[in-house]
Amino acid sequence: MALAIAIALLFQICFFTKVQSYSSLSSAEKITQLPGQPQVCFQQFAGYVSVDQKKQRALFYYFVEAEVDPASKPLVLWLNGGPGCSSLGVGAFSENGPFRPSGNVLVGNEHSWNKEANILYLESPIGVGFSYSADSSNYEGVNDKITARDNLVFLQNWFLKFPQYRNRSLYITGESYAGHYIPQLAEIMLLFNKKENLFNLKGIALGNPVLEFATDFNSRAEYFWSHGLISDTTYKLFTSACNYSRYVSEYYRGAISSVCLRVINLVTTETSKFVDKYDVTLDVCMSSVLSQSKILSPEQVAETIDVCVEDETVNYLNRRDVQQALHARLVGVKRWVVCSNVLDYELLDIEIPSIPIVGRIINAGIPVLIYSGDQDSVIPLTGSRTLVHRLAEELGLRTSTPYRVWFAGMQVGGWTQVYGNILSFATIRGASHEAPFSQPGRSLVLFKAFLEGRPLPEAF
Question: Is 270 a member of any domain?
Fold first, then answer.
């Protein structure tokens, strides 16, 4: 009897929450049900948006409406980094999406971000995940400018399929190399709005982002040393003889000096390949959720990465029935992979700082949140915090919320500082490079406060 009442209530709730109407274009891409998924009340969509019909270039998206009252909730675009890693496999199915694969089924994520917003996951740039070009030559020489332009065209054309979201409050968030993707996209959106007011951009949030190459990468040495991963001697060498940004620059140019090779070999030996650099406290084998960061650690490229053999996200997304349910197809590749092996990205773009663009976005009146999982040694919180403080000084923003703890539940969720009520920095305690994966509850609290424009909780 109790079960029957519960089921009846579920269907009643679902009936009252499905209030949005969709165009024929979007209805064709509605997901009836993903294989193995639990019963849910929200609608899901997936498919392709052309960004260049002439060259047959199309980006793949996965869209989940908010659990409750989606018509009143904002639209959030999520981008993963790499460059070249999937927002579907990492963001949606490993971090903050409504489901996570478990064997042959999907299990619900109680900390899914669609509890607070309508979430749009985009596999970008071309050549990532299910996104494709009919001509493989289009995968060569892809760079930040091309990615930003394609993402802009994607959103323009996506609004044609989902016109009810055209004037909706829009937020963009993501992590890692999305520290380049997001500011550049936001800036050209604001420029586009001067011609046609299409994007109702309300804020951006960047998680463990690459913002300024030297500061971000060179903060790794102190993080390693302060957490006991390297010796005093190696720390001195890693900050004087060859710092990490110099090594990466030499690596990308194919000309590693003997001194840098010697220092990096020392660092690699001492930190050990058995410690996960994306969460220095993590004591398990690496999952696909960490793959987006491998490009940021080129000394590990030659190693065989243990992905725990049973990488459930990869297995799930390579199932024929799953691809059919997602309206997805493989073009020019045999398997869906977490990070593209066909994309030839201009990696030297990483040396072009995106922090000045963040400053221009703030000057345009758009709130910015930069947050860091505090167990990440790849893009450590110390570098991000330094960059945020420096930017605040350059913009003349005074501290509006002094550095303090914030709470999630009955525990400290992290630390935060706010400048001028428009630029915020926050750490997520105990979180990795992919914060919503390792600290889903605390990440959801941060996300909710960001959307609502409210301070992070000061008490529990």
Answer: yes
Q: From the candidates 376, 424, 432, 438, which is the catalytic residue? A: 376
Statement: residue 243 has pLDDT above 90: yes
Q: pLDDT tens digit string along 124-174?
A: 999 999 999 999 999 999 999 999 999 999 999 999 999 999 999 999 999
**Residue 87: inside a domain, yes or no?**
yes
Integer Cα distance of 67 and 350 in angstroms: 37
The crossing angle, in degrees rounded to 10, of helices 144-161 and 178-193 is 60
Catalytic: which of 112, 176, 293, 432?
Answer: 176
Given the residues 180, 349, 433, 438, the one annotated as active site: 433
How many structural domains comprise the chain? 2
8 A C-beta contact, residue 116 and residue 444:
yes
What does the pLDDT read at residue 292? 56
Kindly report the pTM of this predicted structure. Answer: 0.92
In a domain, residue 24? The reply is yes
Domain extent at residue 118 = 2-212+350-452
Last residue of a domain, which of 309, 330, 362? Answer: 309
Assess whether 376 carries a catalytic annotation. Answer: yes
- Which pair of structure tokens corresponds to residue 386? 């330094």
Catalytic residue at 72? Answer: no
Is residue 441 assigned to a domain?
yes
pLDDT digits 0-9 by tens, 246-287: 999 999 999 999 999 999 999 999 998 778 788 887 664 545
Query: Both 99 and 242 in a single domain?
Result: no
176 a catalytic residue: yes
